[in-house]
Write a structure and sequence with these properties.
Keywords: Membrane, Transmembrane, Transmembrane helix. It holds the Pfam family DUF6533. It comes from Collybia nuda. By secondary structure, the chain is mainly alpha-helical. It has one domain: Rhopdopsin 7-helix transmembrane proteins (Up-down Bundle), CATH 1.20.1070. Helices cover about 60% and strands about 5% of the residues. The strands form two sheets. Strands 1-2 form a two-stranded antiparallel ribbon. A two-stranded antiparallel sheet has the order 3-4. A hairpin with a 4-residue loop joins strand 3 and strand 4. The chain is elongated. The chain starts with 7 loop residues before the first helix and ends in a 40-residue tail after the last strand.
């Protein structure tokens, strides 16, 4: 455990930067919440409830309220060394919960895309479990930032033990690795139908939002990884605030955008699969009756061309879990192969 005491100027400067970053990040989150609240009421509160909806609400409200306590800890003069050393467990736990809830929401989407390829889903689940265990262990090595008594700073913030900075950086790059796997699997599933120009609104939204999310998180996480290794103790975790709140805000937007896209699919009259309403209901079945023959030619000479029915793989039953899009969703046939469109998006 490092006990290096910063100079008065450095201590005040680091405290101010931490406060600026914390309040700026929280402002972004609050603005995003206000901007998307009407969509939340429409698609979450008035929509069908399911696992992703409950995870969405946990992500949407638990993290912001928990972060308000962190902001109080940055400003309040009541902290002493002993009290702060206990509080930092709360700060670290809230950060860990926020990141892992988002990871679980992504896992459910991978399950929707690859539900009949359990080894892929299992691999992603294992990576998330490893990330959770690593973050839990690092939480036991958390400590309070040391302040110079002459500076008058009493802020309480957590950093990982500087003696394990290399290992502590895994709190940043492990989520980035997980996100990289998620975006790679999403690209693999969505690009073929998009190239063929027959992708559904949901598929396009999955790709677009996934790339935007990954680009932003990659930039922030790269900076956080470098700072955990090389920055002074008082600044090591400063970007973790931005990473957490940006992840929460973007995941909320992705969920709402997917629900909006699912509503557009509902308005598309190409395919009408009917899904069971129960979480533990039987497997949903999607019927594709052979279309009528097409008549080609003039009134004097007509040729009847029979339409080939869909192959059995396209007509396979889709495993059903609670839907958080809509009870009925219209999806192009090319998007159905090997996918579970009754899954929460």
């Amino acid at each position: 455990m490092a006990d290096e005491i910063p100079t008065v100027i450095d201590d005040i400067s680091q405290m101010m930067r931490t406060n600026y970053m914390g309040f700026a990040s929280f402002t972004v989150l609050v603005w995003d919440h206000i901007d998307t609240f009407t969509a939340e009421v429409e698609y979450i509160w008035k929509g069908k409830k399911g696992p992703i909806v409950y995870l969405f609400l946990l992500n949407r409200y638990l993290t912001p309220f928990g972060f308000i306590v962190n902001l109080f800890a940055y400003l309040s003069p009541v902290w002493d060394r002993e009290t702060c050393s206990r509080f930092i467990r709360f700060e670290g736990s809230m950060t860990m919960i926020g990141i892992e809830v988002v990871g679980l929401m992504m896992l459910l989407r991978i399950y929707a895309l690859y539900y009949n390829q359990r080894w892929i889903v299992g691999g992603v689940a294992f990576l998330l479990l490893f990330q959770t265990c690593m973050n839990g262990w690092l939480l036991t090595r958390g400590e309070a930032v040391i302040h110079n008594e002459l500076s008058g700073v009493r802020a309480c913030t957590m950093i990982f033990d500087p003696d394990i900075s290399i290992l502590a950086s895994s709190s940043a790059w492990l989520p980035l690795l997980y996100d990289t796997v998620i975006v790679g699997l999403t690209l693999y599933r969505t690009l073929p139908s998009i190239r063929n120009q027959n992708a559904s609104f949901v598929m396009r939204r999955l790709l677009e939002d996934g790339l935007i999310y990954y680009s932003a998180i990659f930039a922030v996480t790269l900076v956080l990884t470098i700072m955990i290794i090389a920055a002074p103790p008082g600044l090591k975790n400063i970007v973790a605030q931005l990473e957490l709140l940006l992840t929460v805000a973007m995941m909320s937007r992705i969920t709402l955008n997917l629900k909006r896209s699912a509503r557009k699919n509902y308005e598309d009259e190409r395919i009408r699969p009917t899904f069971p309403t129960s979480l533990f209901g039987s497997k949903s079945r999607m019927s594709f009756a052979p279309p009528p023959p097409v008549r080609i030619g003039t009134t004097s000479h007509t040729t009847t061309v029979p339409m080939t029915p869909l192959p059995p793989r396209r007509r396979e039953s889709l495993h059903s879990i609670e839907s958080f899009v809509e009870p009925r969703v219209h999806i192009p046939e090319s998007d159905l192969k090997g996918m579970n469109y009754n899954q929460d998006w």
